[in-house]
From TrEMBL, chain A:
Gene encoding the protein: hybB
Keyword vocabulary terms for this entry: Cell membrane, Membrane, Transmembrane, Transmembrane helix
GO CC field: plasma membrane
Protein family: Belongs to the NrfD family.
Gene Ontology biological-process annotations: anaerobic respiration
Protein name (Swiss-Prot/TrEMBL): Ni/Fe-hydrogenase cytochrome b subunit
Signal sequence range: none
The keyword Thylakoid belongs to this UniProt entry's keyword annotation: no
InterPro entries listed in its UniProt record: FDH_cytochrome_b556_subunit (IPR051817), NrfD-like (IPR005614)
Species: Geomesophilobacter sediminis
Bilayer-crossing regions: 28-51, 71-99, 111-128, 140-162, 183-201, 228-249, 261-282, 302-323, 335-358, 364-385
Lineage: Bacteria, Pseudomonadati, Thermodesulfobacteriota, Desulfuromonadia, Geobacterales
Location within or outside the cell: Cell membrane
From TrEMBL, chain B:
Official protein name in the record: Hydrogenase 2 operon protein HybA
Pfam family, one: Fer4_11
Subunit structure, interactors included: Heterodimer of a large and a small subunit.
SUPFAM superfamilies for this protein: 4Fe-4S ferredoxins
Gene3D superfamilies hit by this protein: 3.30.70.20
Organism: Geomesophilobacter sediminis
């Protein structure tokens, strides 16, 4: 390892040395230079000039959006999808810190970090999506409480800070700043509760954004319960994303998670998925009716794919005990759910409004630059997660899990009682 | 590290208190939600498609009059009104040829044609002109959805106007508008949302909307919304073929043109659409054929999102109270040990 004190001075160098000390993750065997990482770095670098071009020449020049299609891939996938993918954090954090379910403690940090990158992805994308990126802070000072978008903006900022707070013990532990660590632990439960409230609202308010378009969004997706549908599907997504990411990291890093954690997550998907299915069916049958699905149109097809592949199939699979015994099969079910919920977000934001937008004379297919940035953002999230896994104590080892909950580190002194 | 229960409760209580405090502005009482009542002095336009001859004088005057400081199309540094070439070859800005409402066009006259297009204002084998522009909702969706308050409704004349300095460019207004009116300057690096602002800058000078001023036939007239509603109802009540002195430029104007009443269909557009609009329309062919969709809600749209927003303080309260209770229950045994 390079000794940073030679370049950055004694104080800074020591700090950097501590941060860049990867002995903490030696047991995980993370290699930084792999073919996949190289590709991801390449994709991330590709998105940098796109972001620059977008900022210099405007949203119209960079995207294929138009007056009939004000929102496209960046909102549909990066923002709606990215935020939904981040739902796991508040659920796991709530389970560990409030419900005191100790067995999930081993995945809490990874889930929170995962969400942090999900939200960061969403935040960067929406910053580039708005036409006047440099004044995106306006809603924070120019309150307009009638606007769901204002709520979304406020929550995005607050929740990103909350996630950063929840993740900070990893960094503080690493650099050994015990007073800071202590302070964070003291507010941790409050921060978790704040995060739970913000997430419940944030996930649902993305759906609430669409409450105002009864005439534009297809009735297959539009109904008054849209916020709650977004919330329930985000819960489903949260379970499966955490499960997916846990199994994935256990595959690529040398690290193992107790099987009953995965089973617990699978049951979570099972219950929320079943509820979601009946919720969707109830709204369909009491709303536009089943006939609309089989009406031989694009929307019906999309609805069917979303429900069959993303909800019914994984719920059915996870209901089988044989699937819940097998990590690989659970992994497959997780991927189906993640796909299904992402597809739902694209359906609401793009396919569901396509009929209206097309009639209004607009055509939309994302531009190369829109795709490049979206892919670059995904690469950014994966890379960021990997770097954190290498340099931060992301997976508390067995030594630590012996301590009571609320005790993230053996180094932290006990508060006087 | 453990936190004593008393200390923990203190932390939760203080953060919860801060939250409730910060949540206060979210409470319904603190900031009035978008009004659903028409301002008594509200002004608007009545467009009678049966009088329109498609001369587009309104479009010309709209673009000219709004390209001056204060106008809805004004941008410093633009030497002339933003003309469009309409993708027509050889039209290098020689004449204005907008195809749609756009970031450069706030008001457009279009033609409906069917079959042989012989008779005016007939749905089958006929033709009709129609006008697209902002209808100035009584309870505008764009005002309610804007996260930075860039869209406002004038409390006196009710014009829905735009403050570019606030806009972040999220384009939620475009999504939310049931009529698809707000347009974006897609060709700009620092774009604005553009739409008709009912010549608010001219109204401030005591003038009427530019389109009504330019209309030679009285197809577009300006006036108080309440008067316009009366006028529209009066025309509808008359029998087709009856002679009627149609006012020019303004409702109740002395200058009129005597013409037979056409056959109106479909009622008055703008009385109930999206909770009512300040601009009203009359037509000889069904509005749906003119691109004014049937599925537009007959109530104020902001109420849909407000129903959700009003619940937010309760979610915070519920999570903190419920979360604290659960925390105490689940951590009871840990603390003893």
């Amino acid at each position: 390892m390079i000794d940073m004190t030679r370049f950055a001075g004694q104080k800074c160098g020591t700090l950097l040395n501590k941060l860049l000390d990867d002995s903490i993750s030696e047991h995980l065997g993370i290699k930084l230079v792999t073919p996949l990482t190289v590709v991801l770095v390449f994709l991330l670098l590709l998105s940098v000039p796109v972001a620059g071009y977008r900022l210099l020449f405007g949203i119209g020049a960079a995207s294929n959006l138009n007056d009939s299609w004000p929102w496209g891939l960046w909102i549909g996938f990066d923002v709606l999808g990215g935020v939904a993918m981040a739902a796991g954090a508040f659920m796991i954090a709530g389970a560990v810190y409030i419900l005191n379910l100790k067995k999930y403690k081993c995945i809490a940090r990874a889930a929170i970090l995962n969400a942090f990158f999900g939200y960061l992805l969403a935040a960067i994308s929406i910053t580039l999506d708005v036409g006047r990126s440099f004044v995106i802070w306006h809603p924070l000072v120019m309150w307009q409480v009638n606007s769901v978008m204002f709520i979304v903006a406020l929550h995005l900022v607050l929740y990103l800070s909350t996630l950063a707070t929840e993740s900070s013990p990893m960094v503080l532990e690493k650099i050994g700043w015990e007073r800071g660590l202590n302070a964070v632990h003291r507010i941790m439960v409050g921060a978790v509760m704040f995060g739970v409230a913000l997430s419940l609202l944030h996930q649902s308010s993305l759906g609430a954004n669409y409450l105002i378009v009864p005439g534009k969004l297809s009735p297959l997706w539009y109904n008054k319960q849209l916020p709650y549908m977004f919330l329930v599907s985000a819960l489903m997504m949260g379970f499966s994303m955490v499960s997916f990411e846990t199994i994935l990291t256990s595959k690529v890093f040398k690290h193992d998670v107790p099987h009953d954690v995965l089973v617990g997550l699978s049951k979570g998907i099972l219950y929320t998925g079943t509820f979601y299915f009946f919720f969707k069916m109830y709204e369909l049958l009491t709303g536009p009716g089943l006939a609309l699905v089989f009406d031989d149109n694009l929307e019906g097809m999309m609805w069917l794919i979303e429900m069959a592949v993303g909800v019914v199939l994984p719920v059915f699979l996870l209901a089988l005990p044989s699937v819940r015994r097998d990590k690989e099969k659970m992994f497959a079910a997780d991927i189906l759910v993640v796909f299904g919920v992402l597809f739902n977000r694209l359906n609401v934001s793009i396919f569901g409004v396509a009929r209206y937008a097309t009639r209004a004379g607009g055509d939309y297919f994302p531009s190369i630059m829109e795709f490049t940035l979206t892919i670059g953002m995904i690469a950014f999230a994966v890379l960021g997660f990997k770097l954190c896994a290498k340099y931060l104590p992301l997976f508390p080892d067995h030594q630590e899990s012996a301590h009571p909950p609320g005790t993230a580190s053996a180094a932290a002194p006990r508060a006087p009682e | 590290m453990t936190v004593s229960r008393r200390k923990f409760l203190k932390i939760v209580a203080s953060s919860g208190g801060a939250l409730v405090a910060s949540g206060v502005p979210l409470a319904p009482q603190a900031q009035a939600r978008v009004s659903t009542v028409l301002p008594p002095q509200a002004t608007g336009l009545l467009y009678d498609a049966t009088l329109c001859v498609g001369c587009k004088a309104c479009m010309v005057n709209c673009k000219t009059q709004n390209s001056v400081p204060g106008g809805a199309l004004y941008k410093s540094g633009w030497p002339m009104p933003p003309y469009e070439n309409g993708d027509i070859k050889l039209n290098n800005g020689i004449w204005d040829a907008p195809r749609e409402l756009s970031g450069k066009t706030l008001n457009i006259i279009k033609v409906y044609k069917n079959g042989s297009a012989e008779v005016k204002d007939r749905a089958i084998n006929g033709y009709a002109f129609f006008k697209q522009q902002c209808l100035h909702c009584v309870s505008p969706a764009c005002v309610s959805v804007c996260p930075a308050g860039a869209f406002r409704k004038d409390p006196v004349n009710g014009a829905v106007y735009y403050l570019a300095d606030r806009c972040i460019g999220c384009r939620y207004c475009q999504l939310a508008c049931p009529f698809g009116v707000p347009r974006y300057e897609w060709d700009s690096a620092w774009p604005e949302v553009r739409k008709c602002q009912l010549c608010r800058h001219r109204q401030a000078e005591g003038k009427i909307a530019a389109c009504a001023e330019a209309c030679p036939t009285g197809a577009t007239i300006f006036g108080k919304v309440l008067d316009l509603r009366e006028e529209a109802k009066r025309r509808q009540a008359l029998r087709p073929g009856d002679e009627y002195p149609f006012p020019i430029q303004k409702v109740g104007a002395r200058e009129t043109t005597l013409r037979p009443i056409a056959h109106y269909t479909d009622g008055i557009y703008g009385l109930v659409e999206a909770g009512g609009t300040q601009n009203l329309m009359l037509s000889g062919v069904p509005f749906e054929l003119l691109g004014f969709g049937r599925n537009i809600a007959k109530y104020d749209l902001p109420r849909l999102t407000w129903a959700y927003i009003a619940k937010i303080p309760w979610v915070f309260l519920g999570v903190f109270v419920g979360g604290t209770a659960i925390y105490k229950m689940t951590h009871r045994n840990d603390k003893e040990g």
